[in-house]
Amino acid sequence: MKIYLVCHAKAEKRNGWDGPMALRPLTPVGLEQARALAVELASEHIPHVIASPHLRCRQTVEPLAKLWATQLTHDDRLAEGEPGAKALALLDELDDRPTLLCSHGDVIAALMGELEERGVRIDGPFRCEKASVWVIEQDRKKARARYRPPPEREQVLDSAPSDRIGVLDMGSTSFRLLVADVTRSGRLAPVATDKVMLRLGAAVAQHGEIPPALADRVLESARDFGRTAQFAGVDRLFPVGTAALRDATNGRWLSERIGIALGTPVRVLEGVEEARLANAAYRRRVLMGPGLALGADLGGGSMQLCLSDEDGPHWATSFPIGVTRLHREFVADDPMSPEAVVDIRARVREALERAQPPVAWPRRCVLGGGTARAVAKLALARRGKSDGAPTNELEITRTALAGLADDLVRSRQEERVAMPGMHKQRVDLLAAGALILSTAAETLGLDEYVVCDWGLREGVMLSVRDGQLTIP
Hints:
Elements: E1 2-7, H1 28-40, E2 48-51, H2 55-68, E3 72-74, H3 84-93, E4 99-103, H4 105-118, E5 121-122, E6 133-138, E7 143-148, E8 163-170, E9 174-182, E10 188-197, H5 200-207, H6 212-231, E11 236-241, H7 243-247, H8 251-262, E12 267-268, H9 271-285, E13 293-298, E14 303-309, E15 312-319, H10 323-330, H11 338-353, E16 364-368, H12 370-382, E17 395-397, H13 398-410, H14 413-417, H15 430-444, E18 448-451, H16 456-465
Parallel strand pairs: 1-4, 2-3, 2-4, 5-7, 8-11, 11-12, 13-16, 16-18
Antiparallel strand pairs: 1-6, 6-7, 8-9, 9-10, 13-14, 14-15, 17-18
């Protein structure tokens, strides 16, 4: 029996990473180490690869798994902070096939101590360096561990940003610009942001098109965004449109005019494409765990759902049940009338019940979008948290959301404005938004939402970085 024990390659520094520690990625140097490791071990043909669920470990052995056409599996017993005894128990469960395990320095050190207690002879001093390999050979009665130093890199890459990308997200409620430095490892360092509330979705719901006066405001805003991006030193600007530009009878014409104003074409996303892009951001920002997970993006004109695992999206769809759309269609009174509540809930249930996913819905859902973040701030305020508290990975149960939605739909606008944590620019829309989310949770059988503070803009950036998305 032969076991290859690998320490993950060089990762981003802890004090420079603002996301969950489990999603802290490899640096460009670490990615190069991972490729060099694949070359170093290419001839071994190891059929079984198990990694810690943390991203930096998965990234370290992904090139190897692809090279050997081997499925990469994950085991929580290899996660950072776990005792060596758990990793030792995993070793005892393995069959006689050669196996590669990728874990963290603390786990490997603890495991080596457990192995020494068991009588494993370790050749040379124990040194757990980045991308180092220990080869453990045993016949169940005696064993020895040999050290293999980290593979040399063909080139050394620093962690400087590889590109400064701008994304202009032209949604049904607002237009939002994000300019960020994007590293090869997928870290986003924001440089500039800007936003304007235009509410195209309401106009499209009322008129079927974007009226001339509003179209003029859109073009003026686009020019302002273009100047902001240029001033921020953007290398590439990617303007993307969503439901309002998809649905408006003059959406294509206006998209072309926006492209001329920006000096780069606009890509109007299909609903399924929008779902997958937002979900890519969720997977990079929130630890969604193994197996199929559900991601949802609630916008002004539509709601997107995507089922995915670590290999990518498996199923995605889009529904015309956005916040601005349903508010414009049903809400005429303040507070919202009981009839409007019934109509919105019926529309959401009718749409979602038509969905035919390949598996049963998971019990929790990662949720993004401006409404999600605004609802999260209200939920935080109800828990006594400050207005600046982070919303990423905030859990909101179905019961808590139902209570919040009930309070919002029963309140007048002046009462909502006074609510702690209220997003003032969404004060008229949040009742409909919370009602849609509450009804969706009930219809899909969700126990809770997990809020993600990344969304479509970040998903576009990551897909541009990977060469998966281009602008025509």
